[in-house]
Structure formats: C-alpha cells, structure tokens
Design goal:
binds zinc ion, secreted, 413 residues, 14 helices, lyase, globular, alpha/beta, three-stranded antiparallel β-sheet, glycolysis, binds 2-phosphoglycolic acid, Enolase-like_N, Enolase_CS
C-alpha cells in the first residue's frame, strides 16, 4: 500500500529541470525520474504543461498523493488509469506525461521492492532469459549537436556478435574510441566535443561520417572477433522542409523529395550494410515508410520513432500499412508503463522489433534497462558513454550477472 509520494525537481543531462518521484509503501521504496527529448514527435504526449517543471512542482505532489496514497502499488494498471484520470486530457497536457511516467515507473519499482524483487523480475515474471543488445551512439548530428555536425542525427553501432553484455558494451566503446582517432586524423582542429547522447560531434559531412563509422566497425570487428554492425537514426522529420516538400541536407547542400529519400536511404543500406535505420522518413508519412520497408525491410530493420511515438493506436495504423518493421519504445512518449507495455505487445505480435530507448535528455535513472529485460526486447538504445548512459549499461551488466546466478539473485534480493 502506498503511504507517501514525494516529487522533486532535479537536473537532467542537458542541465534542464526534470521530475524525480519517490513512492514509499509500508515495505518498499521506488524512485524514478523522467527523461526528455530534443527531436520529439508531434504526436507524443505533452511532457510538461506550459511553465515546465516549475509550473507544476508546487502542487503536483499534493494532487497525486491525494489520489494514490492508500492504493496498492502492485495494481499498476489501475494506478496508471488513475494518473490519466487526474490529468483528464487525451495528451496528458494538464500534469504532463513526464509527471505521469515518473510516478508510474516509481510505483512499479516500489511494488517490485515490496516483493524483494528487482524490477525486471517483478515485471517479467519468472527469470527472463535474454539480455538485449545495446545500440551505442557514436557520432551525433542534427538536433543533438552543433551546426557544423552532420544532418543525420545518430550514427550508431550494434555488436551483434557479442556473447554477453559486458563484451557488447566494451566492444561499442572500442568503436567509439576508434572513431575519435579517425575524426582527429581528418580534422586536426577537432576538440573531442560530444553531442547530447555522448557520440562525437564532429565537423563532418554525412558521407564522411558514414565512412568513418563503417570502417571503424569493420576494423574493430576484425581485431576483436566480435561482429559490429553500423546503424543510423536519421531523425528525418528534423530536416524535412514542409513548404518545399523536400529533405534538406544542409551539410551537402542537397535536397531530396520523398522518392529520392527512399532511394538514398536504400542505397546507404546497401553500400554500408546497415543493420538498422530509424526514422529514415518524416513522421506522418506512412506511405514513404512503407515504400522503404518494401525495398529494404528484408535486409535492414526500418524503425519508427517519431512516426509511432510508442502509441499503440498509431502503431496499429503503421502495421496496417506495412510501414516499418521495428519500433522505438520510449515510456515518456506515451506517459505510463501500462500503455508502454501495450505497445510493446502489439509490436511483438505483429513482427515489429521493439527497441527500448533512452531520450537525449536523461538522468542516471536505470529503469529502461529493467524494462528491456522484463519485456524480452532484443535491442536497447541507450548510448555508449556518459554518466546517464552508462547508468543503464552498467545496470545490464549487473542484471546479467544475476541472471546467470539465480541463487545469487534470490539471496541478494
Ligand atoms: P530525442 O531523440 O530524445 O531528442 O527526442 C532521440 C531519438 O530521436 O531517438
Ligand atoms: Zn529517434
């Protein structure tokens, strides 16, 4: 039974305020914080009402406490419904989806703690068997880096040949280091600056970044024997010009219409053997997604982030139109854990690969590591370096250790 709820303003990794929530039950405790996006989808729930965290911090603790104190923390679905009722709007614009998601996650953690279970086991039932592969962020562009960086937002890698999570995260970091050397060799003025998600923020064209990314993958694969595949998040909505109806690549001075964009991305997938491409087409363009999926969906994961915004109804439309074959899962895009789980389920039953993901603004909150394991998601996207990124990766290392030693898991918790 929930006895107390505390809500406080804390820092996120960009230095912006966010909410942290503590939930106290008579025999448990849960704490969670909300992340925030920079290249958000237009159909996401509203993160905070006008005025941001400061606009609600005074009153939100009382409003939520009044309804939730006395409820059972393990009735997650009911609690999520109450949170949506408290807000009262379809897009959670009254108290904010970041408020509801932080409460929802903190309640789940408190419920897990009151059973003496880690969150991944409480949500996942019996001992889950799979640790997700970490999608690591290597080079940042677009909305996550300065103006001279590439237009493509994220150059990523996936260590598909890794046999455990420790090998996987250290392989990612080896590629990250190799990429730095290559950027430095090309640009003597490079200062080692990074973007919001811990990838390098270089003065490179998209093409140059692709070459460095993929040659680094190949070299590290050869040297370590762990196969690493290149991946991208284009975040194409960010450079779509809706007046001109073109994708504007400002670094190269090239504009592409939708058909040209589909062909360009398909060529990149072929040339660089991309394993995964996220948001290659702007949000809202289901047909463009479907065209690319038709061309490239057998050789590459075509993942929707801004287009689906973790929303089961919108994903259903995508499934109907065969738009994509993978979906990004960000709990704060939809506002509660129950709704997040519904979307994961819908994805899985329709053959879409769910990829649990961080946001560009993060805290050391490690909840998404547990969600990815509990829900048996094959991939987690949570960066490669940076304190708020390694918080999740290091938690996965701990979880794997527990999973391989079930007795230890029982004793420890
Ligand atoms: P955001 O972007 O967290 O800044 O919205 C991350 C992404 O596009 O995947
Ligand atoms: Zn994205």
């Amino acid at each position: 039974v929930i006895e107390d709820i505390r809500v406080r303003k804390i820092l996120d990794s960009r230095g912006n305020p966010t909410l942290e929530v503590d939930v106290i039950t008579w025999n448990g405790f849960g704490r969670a914080a909300a992340p925030s996006g920079a290249s958000t989808g237009v159909r996401e729930v509203v993160s905070f009402p006008t005025g941001g965290v400061d606009g609600i911090i005074e009153e939100v603790e009382d409003i939520i406490s009044a309804e939730l104190i006395g409820m059972d923390a393990e009735d997650l679905q009911e609690i999520d419904l109450v949170l949506k009722e408290i807000d009262g709007t379809p897009n959670l614009s009254a108290i904010g989806g970041n408020t509801t998601v932080a409460v929802s996650m903190a309640v789940a953690k408190a419920a897990a703690a009151s059973y003496n279970l880690p969150l991944y086991r409480f949500l996942g039932g019996n001992m889950p068997s799979q640790i997700p592969f970490p999608l690591g962020n290597m080079i940042n562009g677009g909305a996550h880096a300065g103006r001279n960086a590439p237009d493509i937002q994220e150059f990523l890698v996936l260590p598909v040949g890794a046999s455990n999570i420790t090998e996987a995260v250290f392989t990612n970091v080896a590629v990250h280091k190799r990429i730095r050397e290559k950027i430095q060799a090309k640009d003597a003025l490079f200062t080692g600056g990074k973007g919001d998600e811990g990838g390098w923020a270089p003065n490179l064209t998209n093409q140059e970044a692709l070459e460095i990314q993929t040659s680094s993958c190949a070299e590290v694969s050869d040297e370590t024997g762990v196969l690493v595949k290149p991946c991208l998040d284009m975040a194409a909505s960010e450079f779509w010009d809706s007046d001109a109806e073109k994708y504007v690549y400002s670094k190269e001075g090239v504009k592409r219409n939708t058909g040209e964009q589909v062909d360009y991305v398909n060529d990149i997938i072929d040339t660089y053997k991309m394993f995964y491409v996220e948001d290659p087409i702007r949000e809202g363009d289901f047909q463009g997604f479907a065209d690319l999926t038709q061309k490239a969906g057998k050789k590459c994961l075509i993942c929707g982030d801004d287009i689906f915004v973790t929303n089961a109804e919108i994903l259903a439309e995508g499934i109907e139109k065969s738009a994509g074959n993978s979906i990004i899962i960000k709990p704060n895009q939809i506002g509660t854990l129950s709704d997040t789980y519904n979307t994961v389920n819908l994805a899985r039953t329709n053959g879409y690969v769910p990829v649990v993901s961080h946001r560009s603004g993060e805290t050391p909150d490690e909840t998404i590591a547990h969600l990815a394991v509990a829900w048996s998601c094959p991939i987690i996207k949570t960066g490669a370096l940076g304190g708020e990124r390694i918080a999740k990766l290091n938690e996965l290392i701990r979880i794997e250790e527990e999973m391989s030693n079930p007795e230890m898991a029982d004793i420890k918790w």
